Structure to design on (389 residues):
């Protein structure tokens, strides 16, 4: 029995946090069964890259991280064609190497269908294998920055074939799952939320502080709308002074300039990119998580915050609000700074109504690593020898 994952996103030397949540899923599932992950990374057609093949083994998880050789030409359009050809050729060689090592897998699981899904569809068709697609992108709203609806015809057609020929399609949120189901005319899309490592992200009784701590954790990309958050908190300081906003994310001179311009230096603290497990300590010391994205699927930080017992303020973008209710947070429309201000005001004034222990207990039952890993393995059962599981 072999389960093969083909991951379009996965941590590598160029992007150590790229698809790290997929890696966490792989590690969790590997506690229940053997998994091999193949990630042929795309550094970009403007980068001179050299072939490198890495194999990382950790108990039942084996990761194949492959860097393929590419030397750009002076012609940009030609580079795009040559690059994609080199990517496909490399993938074919890697899959051949996999077959030599392990034989045919029982099931192939694609994470993020563009580009690995295109490879998987053709290869699985040739090998008479079923494949599962887990889509993690948030592009299925017309207002999304990288909206599916603005993609070229070839992209839409390729993605449609990958989705429609999959044995199972999954997503981490109900909202995006419904969009995918309608767009690609699928009979169903299975929802499996992001998992949380509750060894780190767990309830811890808050320490007394004279300041209320709002926490924001993200990549600080434009779709996270940190500018809207900062503008809102600039107004909040006119009404309340006993609070602070801690922003966990990569250092940004642009964000630092905005903080200074809005006279928030005494209230807002920007950390830097930190390891996954270190985020838990910030969550356990905070009072509430704040997200205000223009575009989302269902971000891991929401599930992690809930497992720590944090109430969450979030926009309703994508599936960000799918797991938020009156008992564990407040939902606001994307971009509505007045609504966000009201939510922050409400959080400060009515914080006592949120039962942090109950929030954490409920979240752990839904999102803890063993729970989600078991749901993923259940997807495979129709395709595996059940005596082996």
């Amino acid at each position: 029995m072999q389960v093969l994952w083909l991951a379009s996103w996965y941590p590598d030397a160029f992007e150590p946090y790229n698809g790290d949540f997929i890696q966490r899923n792989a590690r969790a599932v590997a506690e229940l069964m053997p998994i091999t992950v193949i990630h042929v990374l795309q550094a970009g057609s403007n980068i001179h890259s050299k072939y490198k093949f890495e194999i990382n083994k950790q108990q039942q998880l084996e990761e194949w991280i492959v860097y393929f050789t590419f030397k750009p030409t002076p012609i940009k359009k030609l580079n795009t064609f040559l690059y994609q050809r080199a990517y496909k050729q490399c993938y074919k060689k890697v899959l051949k190497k996999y077959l030599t090592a392990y034989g045919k897998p029982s099931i192939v699981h694609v994470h993020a269908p563009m580009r690995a899904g295109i490879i998987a569809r053709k290869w699985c068709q040739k090998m008479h294998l079923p494949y599962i697609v887990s889509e993690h992108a948030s592009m299925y709203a017309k207002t999304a920055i990288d909206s599916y609806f603005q993609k070229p015809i070839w992209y839409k057609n390729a993605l449609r074939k990958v989705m429609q020929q999959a044995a199972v399609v999954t997503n981490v949120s109900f909202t995006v799952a419904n969009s995918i189901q309608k767009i690609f005319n699928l009979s169903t899309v299975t929802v499996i939320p992001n998992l949380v490592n509750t060894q780190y992200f767990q309830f811890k009784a808050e320490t007394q502080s004279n300041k209320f701590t709002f926490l924001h954790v993200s990549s600080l990309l434009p779709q996270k709308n940190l500018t809207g958050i900062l503008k809102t908190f600039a107004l909040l300081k006119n009404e309340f002074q006993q609070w602070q906003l801690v922003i966990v994310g990569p250092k940004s001179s642009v964000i630092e300039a905005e903080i200074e311009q809005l006279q928030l230096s005494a209230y807002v603290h920007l950390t830097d990119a930190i390891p996954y497990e270190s985020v838990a300590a910030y969550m356990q010391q905070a009072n509430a998580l704040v997200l205000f994205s223009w575009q989302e699927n269902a971000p891991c930080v929401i599930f992690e915050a809930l497992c720590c017992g944090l109430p969450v303020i979030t926009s309703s973008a994508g599936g960000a609000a799918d797991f938020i209710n009156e008992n564990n947070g407040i939902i606001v429309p994307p971009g509505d700074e007045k609504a966000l201000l009201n939510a922050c005001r409400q959080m400060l004034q009515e914080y006592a109504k949120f039962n942090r222990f109950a929030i954490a207990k409920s979240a752990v039952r839904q999102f803890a690593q063993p729970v989600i890993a078991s749901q993923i393995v259940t997807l495979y059962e129709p395709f595996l020898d059940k005596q082996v599981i």
